[in-house]
Amino acid sequence: MTSPLPDTWFTRDLPVLRAIARLVDTPDHGGSPYLLGAVVPASGLPKAEVTVAAKALASAGYIEPLTNHAGDIVRVTAISAEARRLAGLWPTPQGEWDRLLEQLVARAENAPTEVERQRWRAFADAATAVGPEAGALLMQALVGGYVPRTS
Q: What integer pLDDT is reported at residue 26 of this predicted model?
């Protein structure tokens, strides 16, 4: 009985969070509270799984639930900023670093002249050499609006 429990984040909780985020972000719902029952078809999971996932997401602070007298979640009123990032609605430093690398490679491949191709390749090579950890820290500063200033 020392083996870890089976993963529920990728198989249950994240799909439900993404379904909730899609519902919250659509103009049809306008950010107003919506029934947990709407999440079931949006997630593709059975109602029992969605119910358990919603409880886990609420306890982690990712969603703000409304409950009935029995304590069952019946509506979701909002999602947290971190939930928006996890669902992909808002940027993450790692995701933005990956997008930057993709752009550099695409620009190198599609540059109109050899001189420009070489410059973009050098830029892409330098960014790759910096690595994803330092790159994510840079993107964290940019996404967060903080750019260190030189004296």
A: 76
